[in-house]
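Q: How would the structure tokens look for this protein?
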Amino acid sequence: MEYSGDYDGEVGVSSVHACFNILNSLSGVGILAIPYALASGGWISILFFILIGVTTWYTGLLLQRCLKLDPMIRSYPEIAEKAFGKKGGFLVSFFIYIELFLVATAILILEADNMYHMFPNAAIRFHECLILDKKHLFIVIASLIVIPTMWLEKQDFLSYISAGGILVSCILVASIFWIGAIENIGFKNKGVLVNWQGVPTAVSLYLVCYTAHPVFPTIYNSMKNKSHFPKILFISFALSSIIYGLMAIFGYLMYGEEVQSQITLNLPTHKVSAMIAISTTILSPLTKYALILSPIMEAIKTRLIQANYKSKSIRKLIGTGLVLGTILVALVVPLFGYVMSLIGALMTSCTSIVFPCVIYLKISKRYRRCLEFESVVLVVIIVMGLVLMVTGTYSTIVGIIDHL
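A: Here is the predicted structure in token form.
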């Protein structure tokens, strides 16, 4: 779920390196919410998880086919521009930037939730009129920590630190399994077979697990042997799905319907293994925050430089403005599960399902051969993506309104 920083853009990388880059891109904070996703939809929703995994793997291959048709294309927005002109490129860029902004917002909420889980009695009173409660206090603290990283001219060291996304995911899964198997919590909850009312939320959260398509063109173009891309894409999706699946099953068996939107919030803070999981959850996303917002910052910076603003004087201003924007959204909607669900339903359904199919139909001219099998499959996937977007977004917005 990380679009920037995890990959530095070098050319001629090995297939193993490319596989690591894809795995790292697929490894994000969504792993914390996937037990909650399974609890929302019940055991049957695992079928939706598998369906989404297969579908997004296939749409990743569609992007590769578009790149093969025109070797001059270097990025996802350029693919869209090739198909639908500048308006198409702008639309894809807009969705990517909004998605990144919401992911950064979710990180602040995640930080606040887990800090409070460790320090539940914290609160600050300013005079008699302003009180920062536990949640808002830690959102502000997290934002103060990340602001300096937004001012850095070069973020190379953050890239190296954040490149361990797949390692962090493995640590979290191992910690959860240890707590369940060794710390006497056990895997005793049977759960429910299906909860149809919660399926839209479950599907939206499953979508977040496969929201790495914007980096696929960059990784593909970096490869020394591009013919290996389909194979390494399959391996990456398979391994990532196994990691996500294990986390979902372990968490649901441990806590059942009581599992929270972040599995770490269920963990006992007096256990060493739990503290490892919570500390990893707090520290790792902080290194990714600036990298996630970097593409938005660079896009704004480029526009302002074209307008004759001095680049050195605007970087801090842009960075601070973006942080303030994420703080505002996090304070208004401090609900991690619903923000993540909104990302999946409204953004990922488009960037990882609908857009790749529509773009490929246009570039390959398959829309002229609408009765061919693959053309029918593409149309079915597009309809499925739109249904997921509408139902998931509606369910999420209703949930947000009910909880505010």
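The longest helix spans residues 76-118.

The chain has one domain: 15-403.

Upvote if useful.
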